[in-house]
Fold this sequence. Notes:
Chain A: Pfam families: Complex1_51K (PF01512), NADH_4Fe-4S (PF10589), SLBB (PF10531). Chain A: Keywords: 4Fe-4S, Flavoprotein, FMN, Iron, Iron-sulfur, Metal-binding, NAD, Oxidoreductase, Quinone, Translocase. Chain A: It catalyses: a quinone + NADH + 5 H(+)(in) = a quinol + NAD(+) + 4 H(+)(out). Chain A: This is NADH-quinone oxidoreductase subunit F. The structure holds two protein chains of two kinds. By secondary structure, chain A is α/β, with parallel strands linked by helices. Chain A has three domains: 210 residues, NADH-ubiquinone oxidoreductase 51kDa subunit (Rossmann fold, 3-Layer(aba) Sandwich); 83 residues, Ubiquitin-like (UB roll) (Roll), CATH 3.10.20.600; 97 residues, NADH-ubiquinone oxidoreductase 51kDa subunit, iron-sulphur binding domain (de novo design (two linked rop proteins)), CATH 1.20.1440.230. In chain A, 40% of the residues lie in helices and 13% in strands. Chain A is built from 18 helices and ten strands. Chain A has a five-stranded mixed sheet. Chain A has a five-stranded mixed sheet with strand order 7-6-10-8-9, covered by helices on one side. Chain A starts with 20 loop residues before the first helix and ends in a 22-residue tail after the last helix. Chain B is of the alpha+beta class. Among the domains of chain B are: 69 residues, Arc Repressor Mutant, subunit A (Orthogonal Bundle); 95 residues, Glutaredoxin (3-Layer(aba) Sandwich), CATH 3.40.30.10. Chain B has a five-stranded mixed sheet. The chains are: A alpha/beta, B alpha+beta. At the A-B interface, α1, α2, α5, α7 and β4 of A face α2, α5, α7 and α8 of B.
Amino acid sequence: MTDTLTPILTKFWDAPQSWTLATYEQHDGYRALRKALDMAPADVLGAVKDSSIRGRGGAGFPTGMKWSFMSPPDGGPRYLVVNADESEPGTCKDIPLMMANPHALIEGVIISSYAIGCEHAFIYLRGEVVHVYRRLLRAVEEARAAGYLGDNVGGKGVKVNITVHAGAGAYICGEETALLDSLEGRRGQPRLKPPFPGAAGLYARPTSVNNVESIASVPGIILEGPDWFKGMGTEKSTGFGIFSLSGHVANPGQFEAPLGITMRELIELAGGMRQGHKLKFWTPGGSSTPIFTEEHLDVPLDFDSVAAAGSMLGTRALQVFDETVSVVRAVSRWTDFYAHESCGKCTPCREGTWWLRQIMNRIENGQGTQDDIDKLVDICDNILGRSFCALGDAATSPITSAVKYFREEFEAGMHTPAHVLFPPEKSVLFDVQTKETSGMVTA
Amino acid sequence: MSGNDTSHASGHLHLRPESKEPYAPDVLEQLRTDAAEVIARYPQKRSALLPLLHLVQSVDGYVTGRGVSLCAELLDLTEAEVSGVATFYTQFKRHPNGEYTVGVCTNTLCAIMGGDQIFDTVAEHLGIGHDETTADGKITLERVECNAACDYAPVVMTNWEFFDNQTPESTVQLVDDLRAGKEVRPTRGPDRVCTFKQVSRVLAGFHDGLADQGPGAGPASLLGLRIAKDNGWTAPAGESDSTAAPTDGTEGSK
Lengths: 443, 254
């Protein structure tokens, strides 16, 4: 029986100077690399495959399988690109991980590069977290000075170098092919697939794009073995992950647990809901995953159980909202976000999110029309599955799920503004000096 | 305002005539030296474009016409290609930025936890709106999207450093301190907030030596770990325990 929480990547985040090489080595750091270098690359890849780890960036595609789908070596370069563009609303696991324990990622990158035959790996970090960038740059320097990076890694003649690259503010760059375009110095717009990055990725060479947490989990899998990893989690969602609770719980925070823990358990660990309030709705994996309500508290948070309940595990970004919150206001703001971040490449997403935004904003203002709900659902239906990448699909998730569970609030938006039905000051986490906000409309 | 109002945030890249004035020779020489270092990090030089635009901002405070021309020349691109990229990303500024960008998260979670009230209060206090700069050139106010710190909501970013668990009062204090030239310390970041230009240089990949300042993690990041320790919860033992692999004595410290 596994313990409720299993600190692995988070294990020494509380150590003084947790981010340094010295601290990392005190906690078994780079032992996995030494072990990996004594194995054949194919065996390292095999171990990751055997662990059945599924990608931690949202989609849940098996990491080892992704690697094995890369085109076979042809003598030319092969690339590992780490997706550190964490921007999905509600998601806040990779940023604290890289701030507190960047060497877990660096060691993972070196081992993974060795496994797939990559000599030059990239970490694409969103540009809006400058201190995390400093920590990564420093970790790469330290690893290079220690001989873990360079042209003769660990004295074994293996070549691995890492470039840490800062983006410049664009949610879409979390989409793997948009990320590659951005890394090539272009506007971050998704590419048509196929070809998949495994065949033609960065500079049209075989490339694997993996999430930070997936790669940071690799050293543990190598050092402790695939069976150790599979001993946690569920049969089809093996291992552990960082669960991020935010919003109206008493104590928001990060919880590293085996996949399959429930929201009921996590809310309890977070001290329950904030005092005097009850749960209304929550996201299991960020704003792009259909919302859940109280009835889903016992759904095991693994890929398949969450999917069976009608949503997605995503990035385990558990945003919690209590009864003071207007679901219309919440969804309207997410819709603003998707419209703002739509890259403009494909019509269903570019035009569709623009229309969704108009309609959501008028419903929020109590100015919705009779057929607005049908129109919303119809537009969503026309975006879903018809846009170039998952951003368009994601824009529809909060709307269709909110209409499903809280249709009456959308109906109320035909006559009463959301801020009248749900005064915003009741939701805030600090004491509000009561003051009329500008532009207040009365019903 | 005309339909071509280029000062508008969503307008096209507006290049003021003075932004095309040539760089002073010593500035240009330093830029070329730095750019060569950036370009050398990548197998193909176009990949250097985003860091080079950060580098331009570290000198000019925004993406200037002369900066666009320089990037185009260095990377064998047209100025239109460079501008096309510069206008896609929100961190690249199209007009002179303040010394400090204060970004209030108003994505759903932070907005509801109080971000909207914070933004309204600070905007009123400063007398400016989104993507506008105070007359003294100190503060550019922005609404920002989710910055991956939701467990510290409501969050305010100042030059991309974290200010966690903010209130309208704390943020007003923050901008007042910045305008008064006081040193301001982020919740999770270096000992003091650097200027927009200094931070832009870091984002171009030039380390400023501040990585070892500040905490490793804030209290919310450590909550699960603390609860696990209190309960004696740990991950199961794996292969490394049973084999008791000897350490080879090269560890960095004891």
